[in-house]
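Hi W.,

Here's what went into the run:
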Amino acid sequence: MASRSTRSSLDRSDLTPLQQRIVAVIELLGPGEVVSYGDVAHDAGAPGAARAVGNVCATVPGLPWWRVVNATGRLVPGHEARQTALLESEGVTVRNDRVRTSRFG
DNA sequence: ATAATGACAAGAA
DNA sequence: CTTCTTGCCATTA
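Here's what came out:
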């Protein structure tokens, strides 16, 4: 029974339904796959909830948050160095704190 | 319950 | 390119 303490870090029962869908979408991202907050919100069935995606990335542990950038390909404020290293290790080209891909290039 | 804030987005200037 | 405004979902005070 997840409802009543002894909740593991993978238990999202304390998240709203939308947040749970957002988590599901981010979990689907594979190595080298970079998308925007808006894309995640759209795929989660809530276009316009890009900000909620940022909340999830910032509070839910265990997610590949480095594969999510803003609409212009800009990296996460305050995590540029770390994010660049993680993305480069997956074959993603980063230039001036910006991902260089077909969509963000 | 309201106001301010935030790893956002899109449009206007 | 930068700045400002409005809209969005959720958290925090």
